[in-house]
């Protein structure tokens, strides 16, 4: 079910402007006048986002925030007022703020964060459909680039199979998240998902960690101890960094995959193992097989279904979406009021190579939210690493112009949002030039309403003499 946007503001000009802008962006909006019953409207649909002038909202009904959330459990309220008033209200993750005067770019960004929050909450009870929130999978993996949508499709296909899956990708791309998504979408979701980092456990302990041990098996084994295979019975065992597993354990793992049985350390009795194996590595296992550092037969057993996660630099168009998501999460967790990243800062981040991938991006957003506390994050706030690091060889303006001019993707990639906006700006200016500045005729050329074109010109600060 799509979120309906409810607009509450006694200033009709403001409410009409907000409604017109959001309707143009594809949202369903309803302006609630002074005589309209907020609670009656909330009862007609389970998912709403309310955009309200804070004084207007508080004047409607005493204690309206608590009552509104009771009437609409999934309701997210976006309140706008003079800066600082947000701190006088109790913290609630369903209450977001915008300063006056309203910036429409900020408004759209906050609405997106509200919808993402609702998508996450829906994922805990009734999963949102892919048509409504196509950039989420199991409320954990985020992306709407072509590569990520293909990944979502692959995960959904293999989830119901019991086949062993090998998840490959650079460090920080979210391999464990992909493994968890496979488990959550499978028939085993009601049982345990048991992760094991093979690189983090000393070699002499890994066998006992995987298969368990019996009392007296070695010094310090004072009692029987179940291993991860036993804990994952009927569920899923996730073997992270499988490429670091030593040769002797590779042999024992191969036996479990072939016979579905294992022996605890110190025991002569085998135990059955109804466990689905998902392995992951950031190493090139084919090269390790060629160098005789990894068993070839085990490699083919593990890679029945191989899945490769794209690096963040290969899906740059997902960076703004990820930033918005992390920004909302850390604002809630740390009780901050950071509104977002400035356009210049966002362009810098879109053009960075991200060797640490999504994990590095998440850590950066957490750092920026913690230090900034409120307002917009600008290039001056970013660490030097992102200003002089491995970015594309040309500035964003040059990249977007080149991409729009010859329709070829630069080798260094682009920030898709910036490229699309640059292309839209040029079309608008061309239409104005062709019509001698007549906005009505230019709007007809662009198949837009005249009011929509005027709003875009104001929003983008475009003038014909540019």
β-strand amount: 5-15%
**Distinct helical segment count:** 20
Taking the alpha carbons of the first and last residues, their distance comes to 43 Å
Q: Please provide the count of β strands.
A: 16
CATH class of the largest domain: Alpha Beta
**What's the architecture of the largest domain in CATH terms?**
3-Layer(aba) Sandwich
Global Rg = 27 Å
Compute the number of structural domains.
3
Q: Portion of residues in helices? A: 40-55%
Secondary-structure-derived class = alpha/beta
Envelope shape: elongated
Q: In what order do the strands lie side by side in the largest sheet?
A: 2-1-3-4-5
Give your account of this protein's structure.
This protein has 466 residues and is an alpha/beta fold. The chain has three domains: 1-134, Response regulator (Rossmann fold, 3-Layer(aba) Sandwich); 146-309, P-loop containing nucleotide triphosphate hydrolases (Rossmann fold, 3-Layer(aba) Sandwich), CATH 3.40.50; 396-460, Orthogonal Bundle (Arc Repressor Mutant, subunit A). It has 20 helices and 16 strands. The strands form five sheets. It has a five-stranded parallel β-sheet with strand order 2-1-3-4-5. Strands 9-10-13-8-14 form a five-stranded parallel β-sheet. Strand 1, helix 1 and strand 2 (28-32) form a beta-alpha-beta unit. It is elongated. It starts with a strand and ends in a 6-residue tail after the last helix. The relative contact order is 0.08.
């Amino acid at each position: 079910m799509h979120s309906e946007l409810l607009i509450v503001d006694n200033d009709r000009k403001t409410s009409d402007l907000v409604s017109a802008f959001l309707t143009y962006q594809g949202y369903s909006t309803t302006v609630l006048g002074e005589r309209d019953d907020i609670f009656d409207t909330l009862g007609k649909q389970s998912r709403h986002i309310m955009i309200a002038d804070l004084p207007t909202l508080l004047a409607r009904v005493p204690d309206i925030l608590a009552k509104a959330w009771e009437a609409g459990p999934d309701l997210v309220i976006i309140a706008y007022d003079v800066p600082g008033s947000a701190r006088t209200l109790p913290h609630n993750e369903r209450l977001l703020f915008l300063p006056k005067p309203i910036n429409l770019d900020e408004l759209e960004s906050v609405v997106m964060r509200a919808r993402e929050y609702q998508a996450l909450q829906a994922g805990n009870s009734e999963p949102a459909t892919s048509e409504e929130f196509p950039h989420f999978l199991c409320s954990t993996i985020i992306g709407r680039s072509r590569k990520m949508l293909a990944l979502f499709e692959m995960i959904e296909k293999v989830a119901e199979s019991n086949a062993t899956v090998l998840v490959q990708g650079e460090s920080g791309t979210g391999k464990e998240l992909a493994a968890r998504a496979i488990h959550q979408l499978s028939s085993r979701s009601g049982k345990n998902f048991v992760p094991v980092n093979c690189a983090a456990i000393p070699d002499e302990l890994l066998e006992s960690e995987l298969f368990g041990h019996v009392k007296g098996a070695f010094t310090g084994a004072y009692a029987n101890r179940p291993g991860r295979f036993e804990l994952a019975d009927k569920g899923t065992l996730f073997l992270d960094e499988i490429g670091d597993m030593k040769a002797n354990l590779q042999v024992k793992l191969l036996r479990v995959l072939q016979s579905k049985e294992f022996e605890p350390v110190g025991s002569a009795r085998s135990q059955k193992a109804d466990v689905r194996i998902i392995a992951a590595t950031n190493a090139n296992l084919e090269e390790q097989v060629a160098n005789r550092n990894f068993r070839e037969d085990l490699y083919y057993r593990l890679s029945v279904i191989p899945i490769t996660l794209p690096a963040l630099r290969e899906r740059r168009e997902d960076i703004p979406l990820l930033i918005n998501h992390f920004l909302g999460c850390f604002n809630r967790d740390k009780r901050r009021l950071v509104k977002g990243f400035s356009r210049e800062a966002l362009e810098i981040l879109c053009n960075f190579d991200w060797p640490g991938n999504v994990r590095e991006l998440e850590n950066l957003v957490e750092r920026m939210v913690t230090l900034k506390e409120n307002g917009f994050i600008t290039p001056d706030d970013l660490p030097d690493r992102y200003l002089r690091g491995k970015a594309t060889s040309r500035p964003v303006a040059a990249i977007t112009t080149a991409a729009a001019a010859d329709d070829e993707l630069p080798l260094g990639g682009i920030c898709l949002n910036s490229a699309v906006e640059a292309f839209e700006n040029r079309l608008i200016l061309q239409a104005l030039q062709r019509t001698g500045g007549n906005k009505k005729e230019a709007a007809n050329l662009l198949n837009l309403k005249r009011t929509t074109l005027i709003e875009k010109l104001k929003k983008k600060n475009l003038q014909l003499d540019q």
